[in-house]
Amino acid sequence: MSHTFSLSNLSPARRLVGLSLLSGAALLLSACGSSKPKPMPLEQFTPSAKVSVAWSQRLSSVKGPLTLAVANGSVTFAGSDGKVLSLDVQTGKERWRANVGKDLSAAVGSDGRYAAVVTTGNVLVAFDQGKELWRERQGGQVITAPLVAGERVFVQGVDRSVRAYDVLDGRWLWNYQRPGTEPLALTASGLLSTFRDTLVVGQGARLVGLDPLRGTPRFDFVVAIPRGTNEVERLADLIGPAARIDDEMCLRAFQFSVACVELNRGSLRWTRQQAGTKAVAANEELVVGADGGDRLSAWRTGNGDALWRVERFLNRGLSAPAVWGSRVAVADAEGQLHVLAADDGRTLARIALDGPLSAAPVVVDDLLLVATRPGTLYALRAN
User: Fold this and answer.
1) What dihedral angle (degrees, nearest 10) is formed by the CA atoms of 383, 367, 301, 149?
2) Please, are residues 180 and 206 in contact by the beta-carbon 8 Å criterion?
3) Regarding predicted confidence, which is higher, 9 or 348?
4) What is the distance, to the nearest Å, from the Cα of residue 26 to the centroid of all Cα atoms in its chain?
């Protein structure tokens, strides 16, 4: 059996945020006051670009945050009821489907062949092109989608522990949890990614690079140093998915900052304060992210210099954005997908989806892939 590790390719703390104590007790924070801020009305503008649906596929509704897994020409997504579907990215043609038979808390990870999900009963389930291979119970809750790479499945719990399994037979390989982990953790998608032959994980506000064969650290450094009067205000967990640009990674520290790091050196390149809760997007030119009040900002990737900021989406409940060629795409809580110019943030186009997004959008070649809470996966093309 081969084990070569190869890779394919307003304060948020005052908004509704799910939190979890490592003991398993759940906490819920709510905004002060009984009424939400009124969303900014949709702007009036003259479209200068056209966005069309290349294909779409409906599966089943999504309750919590899930993930789109794109690899080897396929996109795999799931519904909260346990249905999993893999499609050809360019055509939308079905490659395989599966049904876990249980509700899901974390989905989906895939390398294009193998896939993995976690049920609300904390059971990790692995598939080979839709055929179930094995199930393995986890020691606690899992929110972050598993990562499948190099014939291994990596799982990150809300307690920040990371476990590795052989994808072929479910054999447990190793477990990692950084000493001194904070007692309070987010019930939100954490950072679980790859860089060459290194597994990159978030451990609170720290970024850790692990040897995927042994689970031993290769680098470990602080991305954010939060300040606050209580444990909630001091939470600064790294939010996934992160944006990879060659040897750099740009990411968000929850309710604190946006940063870009150098993965070769295992060091922080720059950081800018922004109190947001959603993942950022980036390419070689810019990094984009929204704060807790839905002010959308862009910074220069190389040095963090501010490029632009728009406030016309205030309180509209923005999703994680995507950098789509010379455009930036971001959706709101009403299911409106806004397409902006990457150079100055002006609105180019808008298209109505069937609901708000359930996952961070993904760009593949010229297509923008977006999944909605009603369960529809759209492949969009800009003309």
Assistant:
1) -170
2) no
3) 348
4) 22
Take residue 114 and report the two structure tokens written for it: 């193998």
* Amino acid (1-letter code) at residue 220: D
Which pLDDT score is estimated for 24?
37
Cα 193 from Cα 224, distance rounded (Å): 18
Q: CA torsion sign, 343 to 348 to 351 to 356? A: positive
Closest CA relative to residue 62, chosen from 19, 104, 96: 104
Residue recorded with tokens 């094995």: 134
Q: List the domains of the chain with CATH numbers.
A: 12-32+49-382 (2.130.10.10)
How confident is the model over 158-213, as pLDDT tens digits? 999 999 999 999 999 999 999 876 667 777 899 999 999 999 999 999 999 999 99
Using the predicted structure, report yes or no on whether residue 329 has a pLDDT greater than 90. Answer: yes
Cα separation, 242 vs 345, in Å, equals 21
Closest CA to 74 of 34, 115, 125, 29: 115
Q: Three-class SS string for 303-359?
A: CCCEEEEECCCCCCCCCCCEEECCEEEEECCCCEEEEEECCCCCEEEEEECCCCECC
Contact 274, 297 (CB under 8 A): yes
Query: What pLDDT, on a 0 to 100 scale, did the predictor assign at position 26?
Result: 34
pLDDT tens sequence across 220-245: 999 998 777 788 888 899 999 999 99
pTM of the model: 0.91
Calpha distance 327→342 (Å, rounded): 5
The SS3 of residue 261 is strand
Q: How far apart are CA 356 and CA 317, in angstroms?
A: 9
